[in-house]
Fold this protein.
Amino acid sequence: EDQVTQSPEALRLQEGESSSLNCSYTVSGLRGLFWYRQDPGKGPEFLFTLYSAGEEKEKERLKATLTKKESFLHITAPKPEDSATYLCAVASGGSYIPTFGRGTSLIVHP
Amino acid sequence: KAGVTQTPRYLIKTRGQQVTLSCSPISGHRSVSWYQQTPGQGLQFLFEYFSETQRNKGNFPGRFSGRQFSNSRSEMNVSTLELGDSALYLCASSNEAWGGTTEAFFGQGTRLTVV
């Protein structure tokens, strides 16, 4: 059974204070790892897909990286509008439907 | 390009009643997946439809059912509602079977409250 663990559960940052969110996974044959952002009361918004170890993708202040056991979402110089819950999901050869982690709730103070 | 549309956005139902939720995927997308999201359990997979066929089903009781129409629109039905069914129900759309190498795009969700 695929497992996804996100840490920390909650993170408070000051505006401009860079940090990283972690997504550790255990799967049988990774097909894809997905990062989403979710604002309160709304559906998750797609951010990135990573397919193989060593891959990196960037979007504005966000950069996602992937190793064989975990993925990091690096947030550089965050702004208050980056406050949201960030979700990680993995799809594998063993479990066709992606499994989601519980998310990291990020609050960026001005 | 229009996104994923879910209706209604909010719903209040009484225990024992049934409810039908609707999802219109992104034009051209053939896969629609449904998720239940609660503070205690996070995002839990309900089922996935691809070209009108249910391809995968999560661990939910038979009270939860769904279907997909020829235009890819999907409906989800919950019968004999229980208080624990109160949740945000999310629909995800993708242009190939979810879980492959493509991402899925979510709708805004339907907030169901059972009283």
User: Anything to note?
Assistant: The CA atoms of residues 30 and 95 of chain B lie 6 Å apart.
